[in-house]
């Protein structure tokens, strides 16, 4: 385990969340689980999603997530963006804006293609502005449209 590990407080959906996350992202696993009694519900767990370790706890109905914390998924290309987006939507996630999507457990994800970061890293402020303006009109990020905005700037 690393020195600093995100700790996620779920209301009562830790087990379902872990199962979904570890089945959706490669390099994922459930490591340690604590239950209430031998066959009782999971109270806490250590799990890995996409190589990142997490601790999770079922803390009760008064815990919820906000957009102040999100998980950033660094995607190779549009196909990978589409793959994760579709898996999240199929599980009941709600798309929001600018590549953000809120999963059925209330956690926000940013599904971002590497190409977006390359384009906004350009030294030409007009090109960066055009890409950012295009991104602000999108729900799911579209690499071809971002590149078009870049080229037309």
Search tags:
elongated, four-stranded mixed β-sheet, 2 domains, 2,3-Dihydroxybiphenyl 1,2-Dioxygenase, domain 1, 28% strand, 153 residues, alpha/beta, 5 helices, 8 strands, single chain
Overall description:
This protein is of the alpha/beta class and 153 residues long. The chain has two domains: 1-60, Roll (2,3-Dihydroxybiphenyl 1,2-Dioxygenase, domain 1), CATH 3.10.180.10; 65-153, 2,3-Dihydroxybiphenyl 1,2-Dioxygenase, domain 1 (Roll). The protein has five helices and eight strands. The protein has helices at 14-24, 78-90, 114-120, 125-136, 143-152, and strands spanning 7-10, 29-35, 42-49, 52-58, 70-75, 94-95, 100-102, 108-113. The strands form two sheets. A four-stranded mixed β-sheet has the order 1-4-3-2, covered by helices on one side. Helix 4 (125-136) packs antiparallel against helix 5 (143-152). The mean pLDDT is 96. It comes from Longimicrobium terrae. GO terms for molecular function: methyltransferase activity.
Number of spatially distinct domains: 2
CATH architecture term of the largest domain:
Roll
The third-level CATH topology of the largest domain is 2,3-Dihydroxybiphenyl 1,2-Dioxygenase, domain 1
The whole-angstrom Rg is 18 Å
- CATH class categorisation of the largest domain: Alpha Beta
- The count of helical stretches stands at 5
CATH superfamily grouping of the largest domain: 2,3-Dihydroxybiphenyl 1,2-Dioxygenase, domain 1
Describe this structure in a few short sentences.
The protein contains five helices and eight strands; from the N terminus they run βαββββαβββααα.
């Amino acid at each position: 385990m690393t020195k600093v590990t995100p700790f996620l407080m779920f209301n009562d959906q830790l087990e379902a969340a872990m199962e979904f996350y570890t089945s959706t992202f490669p390099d994922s696993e459930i490591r340690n689980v604590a239950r209430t009694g031998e066959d009782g519900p999971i109270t806490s767990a250590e799990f890995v999603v996409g190589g990142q370790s997490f601790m999770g706890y079922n803390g009760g109905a008064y815990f919820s997530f906000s957009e102040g914390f999100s998980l950033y998924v660094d995607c190779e290309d549009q196909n990978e963006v589409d793959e994760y987006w579709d898996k999240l939507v199929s599980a009941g996630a709600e798309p929001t804006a600018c590549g953000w999507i809120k999963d059925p457990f209330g956690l926000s994800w940013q599904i971002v293609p590497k190409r977006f970061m390359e384009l906004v890293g350009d030294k030409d402020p007009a090109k960066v502005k055009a890409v950012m303006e295009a991104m602000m009109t999108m729900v799911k990020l579209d690499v071809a449209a971002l590149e078009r905005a870049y080229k037309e700037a």
